[in-house]
Automatic annotation (TrEMBL):
It comes from Homo sapiens. One of its GO terms (molecular function) is RNA helicase activity. Residues 391-413 are annotated as: Disordered. It is an enzyme of class 3 (hydrolase). Keywords: ATP-binding, Helicase, Hydrolase, Nucleotide-binding, Nucleus, RNA-binding. GO terms for biological process: maturation of SSU-rRNA. Its main location: nucleus. This is Probable ATP-dependent RNA helicase DDX52. GO terms for cellular component: nucleolus. Its EC number is 3.6.4.13. Required for efficient ribosome biogenesis. May control cell cycle progression by regulating translation of mRNAs that contain a terminal oligo pyrimidine (TOP) motif in their 5' UTRs, such as GTPBP4.
Length: 413
């Protein structure tokens, strides 16, 4: 039985219309664009890539690639993903056989190929360009892909090319850009805009302080939990710190973030899917699109910087109609951000403490500032802060003494 987004998006794409589509996480968006692409391409052809799917992260690209391979089995379509740009340049460059049909990739790898002289890939035959998690690609700052996306659009020179943008959240910037740049675009929104799925039981938990967060996690472990569990933190450093604290709790825990190698990340994702890892600590890297089957619980250890980030985080559970739970820790420091997330929770039919409903909403400028510069938080550690400061002072003294000894020895020599 097709899902609502599939029932709306598939006919639109089959009619060759350009599309901006928004639907809750876990609602079947990948199939919503994959099925019409395969139907319109009909059969393999030695013309080079005729469909291009852009994803913000390699993990999400891998997931889409696997899904396409699965549903196209027996059709003969050649579906590729760029793993190493240097290898791809030889494989897809000017002297290639053009015996490929669909490409799934991240913008950075594709831009690298397009900037080669001559270009390491030809997109002149692309008939469908799909951008998944499009609001992520339009973010400001170093993670924004607006310029790369413009270059990719220009490289798709076929008069047949049509474009579709998909996401779980509906960003104003994306909507305005699509109205200006897409041809007679159709907008499809399933459910309330920027809302969480109702299959996720959502809870806000006041923990008082950073130490309270660690105590709350340990209390959950003590009471017993039903893995697999995803735990979100706001930075790589905090992911490492929490991992070092939880590794001693006797549970199978691992961590994934941008500083780990691609092989390490792939191995961790595989182990989590296989049930070898019960608790996976991660940063925003995994908040977008990754489909882990059967995640029972999401813990927002660090409060998300926006309601959009919150929706993507908790969207890792309660997928494809299954039930899930999301617990979000908050402290006094998180008070300015509470109202927007509380609204999402309330819209999904989950209880919100009355006093939070009275909090003021952040102004647009304040929201952007907090997204770009998240709260500075104390280190995640069971060691009291005063002991940590003493240890740092001691380390500085030791370093200073060693430097003096080194200078003295050099003077003697």
């Amino acid at each position: 039985m097709p899902t609502p987004i599939q029932m709306q998006a598939i006919p639109v794409m089959l009619h060759g219309r350009e599309l901006l589509a928004s639907a809750p996480t876990g609602s079947g968006k990948t199939l919503a664009f994959s099925i019409p692409i395969l139907m319109q391409l009909k059969q393999p052809a030695n013309k080079g890539f005729r469909a291009l799917i852009i994803s913000p992260t390699r993990e999400l690209a891998s997931q889409i690639h696997r899904e396409l391979i699965k549903i196209s089995e027996g059709t003969g379509f050649r579906i590729h993903m760029i793993h190493k740009a240097a290898v791809a340049a030889k494989k897809f460059g000017p002297k290639s056989s053009k015996k490929f049909d669909i490409l799934v990739t991240t913008p950075n790898r594709l831009i690298y190929l397009l900037k080669q002289d001559p270009p390491g890939i030809d997109l002149a035959s692309v008939e469908w360009l799909v951008v998944d998690e499009s609001d992520k690609l339009f973010e400001d700052g170093k993670t924004g892909f607006r310029d790369q996306l413009a270059s990719i659009f220009l490289a798709c020179t076929s008069h047949k090319v049509r474009r579709a943008m998909f996401s779980a959240t509906f960003a104003y910037d994306v909507e305005q850009w699509c109205k200006l740049n897409l041809d007679n675009v159709i907008s499809v929104s399933i459910g309330a805009r920027n809302s969480a799925v109702e299959t996720v039981e959502q809870e806000l938990l006041f923990v008082g302080s950073e130490t309270g967060k660690l105590l709350a996690v340990r209390e959950l472990v003590k009471k017993g939990f039903n893995p697999p569990v995803l735990v979100f933190v706001q930075s790589i450093e905090r992911a490492k710190e929490l991992f070092h604290e939880l590794i001693y709790e006797g549970i199978n825990v691992d961590v994934i973030h941008a500083e780990r190698t691609q092989q390490q990340r792939d191995n961790t994702v595989h182990s989590f899917r296989a049930g070898k890892i019960w608790v996976l600590i991660c940063t925003a890297l995994l908040a977008r699109g990754i489909d882990f089957k059967g995640v029972n619980l999401v813990i927002n250890y660090d409060f998300p910087t926006s309601s959009v980030e919150y929706i993507h985080r908790i969207g890792r559970t309660g997928r494809a109609g299954n039930k899930g739970k999301a617990i979000t820790f908050f402290t006094e420091d998180d008070k300015p951000l509470l109202r927007s997330v509380a609204n999402v929770i309330q819209q999904a039919g989950c209880p919100v403490p009355e006093y939070i409903k009275g909090f003021q909403k952040l102004l647009s400028k304040q929201k952007k500032k907090m997204i770009k510069k998240p709260l500075e938080r104390e280190s995640i550690s069971t060691t009291p802060k005063c002991f940590l400061e003493k240890a740092k002072d001691k380390q500085k003294k030791v370093t200073g003494q060693n430097s003096k000894k080194k200078v003295a020895l050099e003077d003697k020599s």
